[in-house]
Fold this sequence. Notes:
- This protein is an all-alpha fold and 165 residues long.
- Helix content is 73%, strand content 0%.
- It has eleven helices and no strands.
- The chain is elongated, with a radius of gyration of 22 Å.
Amino acid sequence: MLAVLSTGNGAKNPDLREHCARLIVGLHDPYLRAMLTHLTNDDWTEVLEEQALPIRERIAIALQFLNDRELSSYLRRVMERCTRDGNIEGLLFTGLSTHGMELLQSYLDASGDIQSVALLAALNPARAHDTRVERWLGAYRDMLDRWRLFHHRCQFDIDRGRVLS
């Protein structure tokens, strides 16, 4: 396909590029869209912005094909976007750092999933006295109590104590 997109002198065939650009718009498969985009443009920028591709795969592409400056900039943009949108996959970048806690708050605001947020926050002893983490843990404990899941609540508290010790 690459040979078809190029003319004999290495330049891209403009008619074929235009045809591929029209095809890309109608494709539902993000992998095929990404492949055609790269073959048409010979640039990874548009592929890295393909939101239908999982973050981990876009990161693999960025790690392989971007230079250090472009990679740093791209990772920063992805982390900021994940934090803003509450995309929990962004924990790949932030870990359970301060940025990770901001991301978890955004995720909680968007999803209402207190269980995931509390369980993730409970794994970080460095954040044990963070007021936000204490609120999340308290809300999760209250939820378990309201649902009469006392055994699970006790097990959660025991496991949390082990993490902190």
